[in-house]
Design a protein that fits this description.
Number of helices: 12
Number of strands: 12
CATH topology of the largest domain: Rossmann fold
Shape: elongated
Helix content: 40-55%
Radius of gyration: 24 Å
Structural class: alpha/beta
CATH class of the largest domain: Alpha Beta
Number of domains: 3
Distance between the termini: 48 Å
Strand order of the largest sheet: 3-2-1-4-5-6-7
Length: about 350
């Protein structure tokens, strides 16, 4: 991998634990394992940047130029686009931060829904799912044949209130981690204490990688109380098109409906989801694809430069005359637009 040595990973904020923040950590960790020189950039330091510096030994941006910049948010790109080749990884369709930047050299969509969104905005992209560290998120403890413990990673009090009622009525133990109320870094430990996990998006992917059956459900402030329900071989290919956000099927569950989904619990589903995550969501595969994209694009650029040089030499133009010819051509182009 001689064409890339220095890599910058950029995320708008790293002060709190969330989906794009843990993704950034996983991405940096994987790049670090491959012995790249990696640095990070953020506007807001905090809990996650501290983990990046202390656990991974990665420092804040110190260079003027990088071979490759992997950026999650358009705010970062607007600041960094002169410092290197930028691949923007677009994680969503609603937030301003997730919108595609015209200053990025290449765009990645983490789901079919995001790719369709970018296409509507006239941005080409490649679909690569959200990467999970499948060594960090793995089954440390076997789930029970009969459901006994649920972990809710829902981010709304209304969703958690319903889940609490269900657990109380059915004599189930409940663990709750709402990132807006409690910041937990080692969430994998809580996942491994549970038999089933309820949440959306990256929370679902991390639970899948940990071999846990999942129910896709929450009530986020930017969306109605949507869900895709219990995830298994029958619906996973459809649900993942929308990043397991609940927006694929948009079921509006009553408490009774949610009970039905929860008690679809099956021990075998955990193994199926773990294998799916290893095959489709592993951060190692995602990093392979990012690097392949970069090298392919660099080769295209080199090919263009070679063809341009051949054209100039075939015309018998030396370096000095080439510059003069380009200046004359640019003057003609500018004159044309002035006349227009």
């Amino acid at each position: 991998m001689t064409d890339v040595q220095n890599i910058l990973v950029a995320t708008n904020q790293l002060n709190k634990i969330g989906g794009s923040e843990t993704f950034a950590f996983s991405l940096i960790e994987e790049l670090k394992k491959r012995e790249f020189v990696v640095e990070y950039f953020t506007f807001l330091k905090g809990a996650v940047s501290q983990q990046i510096e202390e656990k991974l030994g990665v420092q804040f941006m110190s260079r003027k130029k990088y071979d490759l910049i992997l950026a999650n948010h358009q705010t970062c790109i607007e600041l960094l686009f002169t410092r290197g080749y930028i691949i923007q990884i677009c994680h969503g369709i609603f937030p301003y931060l997730e919108q595609p930047s015209k200053y990025a050299d290449f765009h990645i969509a983490i789901s079919q829904e995001v790719q369709d969104h970018l296409k509507k905005k006239n941005f080409k992209s490649r679909k690569i799912y959200n990467g999970i560290d499948c060594e960090r998120f793995k089954p440390e403890k076997k789930i029970k044949p009969k459901l006994t413990t649920i972990l809710s990673l829902c981010q709304s009090n209304s969703a958690n209130a319903i889940i609490k009622e269900i657990c109380r009525e059915h004599n189930l133990s409940l663990l709750v981690i709402n990132k807006f109320e409690t910041q937990v870094w080692e969430v994998e430990k809580a996942i491994n204490k549970s038999d089933l996990v309820i949440g959306l998006g990256r929370s679902i992917y991390e639970a899948m990688a940990s071999g846990r059956p999942v129910v896709i459900y929450d009530h986020r402030p930017y969306s109605k109380s949507f869900g895709d329900g219990y995830l298994d071989a029958n619906n996973i290919k459809e649900s993942i098109k929308n990043n397991c956000s609940g927006r694929r099927f948009k079921f509006q569950f009553s408490k009774g409906d949610l009970v039905t989904e929860i008690f679809k619990y099956d021990l075998k589903t955990g193994d199926f989801l773990r294998n799916f995550a290893l095959k489709n969501l592993n951060i190692t595969s995602m990093v392979d694809e990012y690097l392949e994209i970069f090298l392919a694009e660099q080769e295209k650029n080199r090919g263009f430069k070679r063809d341009f040089r051949k054209l100039m030499y075939s015309m018998g133009i030396n370096k000095k005359k080439k510059v003069q010819a380009l200046k004359r051509q640019m003057a003609k182009i500018l004159a044309y637009f002035v006349r227009k």
